[in-house]
């Protein structure tokens, strides 16, 4: 554990800017520490000294008795640097700057923030904030915050749980925590980091992951995270869900290639989190839903789900959501269905989703017996129980059955309980006590199940080897790039650059009498858009095609006409998180079809195959509408070779292979572009 653990383990807290004035932010941390029974030393700091809420106040942390573990700074922005200097001189290791007026306000505030951080780092002081609402460690009752959550008339329970909540936004972080507490969740830590000027939210999450009692981590981020910090967090073994704002941004840079259009920064983050086994939540409810699922110690061994319901409608909705979330609605074994048919009324269903029907209300044993049979089926990795408008007595019976099967089988069991709270006021508490995550709709239960599989699925830790090819010194023309691709082992069309109409005709004859002609002009990436490509040029028309394309002012490339296949795009571009490989449905409609998937490089074994499987257009590769199946193994090898080719290339480039045609046998790169990003 590092000094950051003092945010929740501090045995002494100094509040710099403390005051007894009603409503002042400097009063709240002292009042909260007092109200909630903090067992450590509380040290109010105020230039006037005296007493604050019954505690001796000191003019400076230098006057207060040490050692001091944690400082909470809530003074005006212009006084913060001096307060930081005092903390350094007093030997304090961690300080929270709650004050605003820094980088969030503009250039002047950013300069003040940079100066403050520099002073702290020079003195070995870690800073959380500025512009944050503080930190709470529920277990040790460290209330270093001014959040209104703890000034509510009703005292918030500080009974600690295993969930850590870390948020750059203070109000959002404590707001989410309040919603979780209202649900019955028990967070153990709520930490806000504001501007992330020194200590980042990811650093705090990684530190919390080392806490033995931590069962799961939830984070809200506004900045693009550091990829190494993400990897470190993922390797902790603790389940993590992150909510990252800014999905609507268009990527932060104008890209010259199709790859840049498909692999926006937000999609790259999606790819990174998926690779690392971190859940990307879409909103606060989804973040908390994942946190609910993380509280259970049971983890799925696979993505196969069995749905059991007392409502046919709920079962159908759940089945739809299982497919939509990328899970599998497992086909139960024959013997399982046969056993269920002996239990379930004839008007129910022994297929997955299993509909026990409302007959369970008169015969509660139907639920117990059905669940036992389903849980014993080794094709089932998770069970989602769906029931509606059940009252307290019926809920109790269902909970007993679900809890028993979860304990006996060791498989995760999630509950969708659709009905108003007044029907069963104690249901949520009963389910939580049984360790069963509880959701108000099938969709939310299934999303939580998908989150649970995301953090549980095995991930390769090794990487595929690179080819050791150096970064190109300048942008390559298509012929130059294709020569490099061929040297790396990728298949490209037969052909060459020609210098005359007669040579163009000769090459056309060499490649079978019909060819593809292209203008080769440095900087011209989208050749089709301007008529710089001619497909199916016969030998008799070669001279005219050569003359027309020569008018673009460059060379002319003549290549074989490759047979029919499935057109894809393969591209690599650099991003804030590192180089990213993208695979998408290709050709001239790449952006319009918007069917793409990405991975951060380097690839791990199995990544390329998984990317192919994630395409919505995968059916085209499998041979849709009677067409022959494409050579998917060769496509996988092509992806792995491209990743290996660029493994040692320095950042600031885009590689665009579009289209890549997957044939019945083999895969060929038909067009290729290499772009070096221009410095601003």
Automatic annotation (TrEMBL):
An MF annotation (GO) of this entry: acetate-CoA ligase (ADP-forming) activity
Ranges of residues in domain CoA-binding: 7-102
InterPro entries reported for this sequence: ATP_grasp_subdomain_1 (IPR013815), CoA-bd (IPR003781), Ligase_CoA_dom (IPR043938), NAD(P)-bd_dom_sf (IPR036291), Succ_CoA_lig_flav_dom (IPR032875), Succinyl-CoA_synth-like (IPR016102)
A Pfam family per the record: Succ_CoA_lig
Annotated PANTHER family: BLL6376 PROTEIN, COA BINDING DOMAIN CONTAINING PROTEIN
Phylogenetic classification of the source organism: Bacteria, Bacillati, Actinomycetota, Actinomycetes, Pseudonocardiales
Coiled coil segments of this chain: none
Annotated protein name in UniProt: Acyl-CoA synthetase (NDP forming)
């Amino acid at each position: 554990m590092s000094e950051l653990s003092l945010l929740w383990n501090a045995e002494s807290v100094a509040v710099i800017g403390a005051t007894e004035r009603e409503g002042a932010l400097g009063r709240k941390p002292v009042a909260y520490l007092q109200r909630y029974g903090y067992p450590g030393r509380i040290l109010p700091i105020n230039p006037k000294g005296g007493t604050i809420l019954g505690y001796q106040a000191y003019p400076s942390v230098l006057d207060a008795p040490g050692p001091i573990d944690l400082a909470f700074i809530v003074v005006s922005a212009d006084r913060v640097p001096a307060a930081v200097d005092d903390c350094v001189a007093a030997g304090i290791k961690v300080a929270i700057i709650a004050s605003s007026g820094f980088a969030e306000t503009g250039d002047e505030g950013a300069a003040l923030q940079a100066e403050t951080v520099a002073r702290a780092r020079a003195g070995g002081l870690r800073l959380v904030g500025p512009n944050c609402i503080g930190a709470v460690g529920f277990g040790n009752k460290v209330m270093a915050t001014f959040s209104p959550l703890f000034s509510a008339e009703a005292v918030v329970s500080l009974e600690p749980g295993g969930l850590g909540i870390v948020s750059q936004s203070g109000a959002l972080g404590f707001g989410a925590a309040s919603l979780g507490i209202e649900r019955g969740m028990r967070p153990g830590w709520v930490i806000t980091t504001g501007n992330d000027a020194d200590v980042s939210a990811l650093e705090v999450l990684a530190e919390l992951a080392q806490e033995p009692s931590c069962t799961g981590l939830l984070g809200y981020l506004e900045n693009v995270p550091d990829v190494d910090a993400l990897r470190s967090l993922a390797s902790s073994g603790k389940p993590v869900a992150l909510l990252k704002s800014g999905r609507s941004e268009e990527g932060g840079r104008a890209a010259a290639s199709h790859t840049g259009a498909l692999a926006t920064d937000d999609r790259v983050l999606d790819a990174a989190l998926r690779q690392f086994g971190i859940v990307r939540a879409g909103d606060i409810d989804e973040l908390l839903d994942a946190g609910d699922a993380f509280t259970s110690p049971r983890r799925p061994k696979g993505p196969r789900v069995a749905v059991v319901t007392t409502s046919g409608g709920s079962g159908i909705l759940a089945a739809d959501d299982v497919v939509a979330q990328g899970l599998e609605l497992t086909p139960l074994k024959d013997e399982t269905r046969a056993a269920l048919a002996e239990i379930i009324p004839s008007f129910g269903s022994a297929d997955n989703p299993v509909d026990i029907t409302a007959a369970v209300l008169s015969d509660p044993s139907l639920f117990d017996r059905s669940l036992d049979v389903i849980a014993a089926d080794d094709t089932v990795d998770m069970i989602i129980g769906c029931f509606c408008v059940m009252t307290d007595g019926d809920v109790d019976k269902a909970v007993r059955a679900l809890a028993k099967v979860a304990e006996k089988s060791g498989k995760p069991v999630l509950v969708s309980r659709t009905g108003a709270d007044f029907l069963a006021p104690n249901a949520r508490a009963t389910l939580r006590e049984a360790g069963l995550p509880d959701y108000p709709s099938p969709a939310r239960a299934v999303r939580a199940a998908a989150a649970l599989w995301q953090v549980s699925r095995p991930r390769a830790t090794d990487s595929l080897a690179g080819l050791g090819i150096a970064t190109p010194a300048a942008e390559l023309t298509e012929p130059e790039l294709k020569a490099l691709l061929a040297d790396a082992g990728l298949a490209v069309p037969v052909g060459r650059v020609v210098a005359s109409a007669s040579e163009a005709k000769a090459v056309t004859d060499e490649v079978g009498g019909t060819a593809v002609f292209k203008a080769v002009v440095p900087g011209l990436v989208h050749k089709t858009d301007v008529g710089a490509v001619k497909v199916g040029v016969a030998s008799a028309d070669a001279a005219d095609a050569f003359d027309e394309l020569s008018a673009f002012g460059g060379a002319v490339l003549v290549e074989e006409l490759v047979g029919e296949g499935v057109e894809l795009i393969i591209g690599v571009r650099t991003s804030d998180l590192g180089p990213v490989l993208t695979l998408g449905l290709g050709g001239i409609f790449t952006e319009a079809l918007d069917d793409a998937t990405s991975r951060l490089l380097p690839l791990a074994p199995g990544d390329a195959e998984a990317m192919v499987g994630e395409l919505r257009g995968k059916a085209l590769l499998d041979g849709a509408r009677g067409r022959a199946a494409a050579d998917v193994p060769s496509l996988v090898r092509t992806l792995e070779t491209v990743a290996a080719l660029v493994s040692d290339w320095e950042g600031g480039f885009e590689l665009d292979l579009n289209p890549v045609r997957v044939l019945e046998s083999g895969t060929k790169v038909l067009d290729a572009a290499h772009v070096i990003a221009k410095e601003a």
